[in-house]
Design goal:
The protein is mostly helical. The chain has 5 helices and 2 strands.
Length: 128
């Protein structure tokens, strides 16, 4: 089971670091070079874990965070200066697996984009 959650935990740590870098850059007005080097290492480890997860379980892992981490990310999700990064954080946070709040049997993989579209289409058809 530890291998199964590894990729999600790395993804959660990546989101936290993105927010922390955004906060530091906004506070200092300077590029956070040292933190960005650490972010690159986290991103490398996250990608390695994700590739292994996809090969083993077939789906992209969801970020796995604690309630406190989720709240920190949500509170500061607009800290990064790049719009793409802010949008990524919001999207990942919406799909995150929150420890202590997730229901039993809830998947650790993201719902594929095609499945989301089908679900929306079904809901739209039912509402007609």
């Amino acid at each position: 089971m530890a291998q199964r959650i590894n990729a999600g935990i790395w993804r959660g740590q990546y989101l936290i670091k993105l927010v922390q870098i955004g906060l530091k850059e906004r506070e200092t007005g300077q590029n956070a070079e040292a933190e960005r080097a650490d972010l690159q290492l986290t991103m490398y480890q996250m990608r390695e874990a994700e590739n292994s997860h996809v090969k083993t379980y077939g789906g992209q892992p969801r970020a796995i965070v604690t309630k406190e981490e989720r709240d920190f990310i949500a509170q500061h999700q607009d800290a990064p200066m790049q719009p793409f990064t802010r949008e990524l954080i919001k999207k990942e946070l919406a799909q995150a697996y929150v420890i202590g709040e997730a229901r039993a049997g809830e998947r650790l993989e993201k719902e594929p984009e095609r499945e989301k579209e089908r679900t929306r289409e079904r809901g739209f058809e039912r509402s007609r």
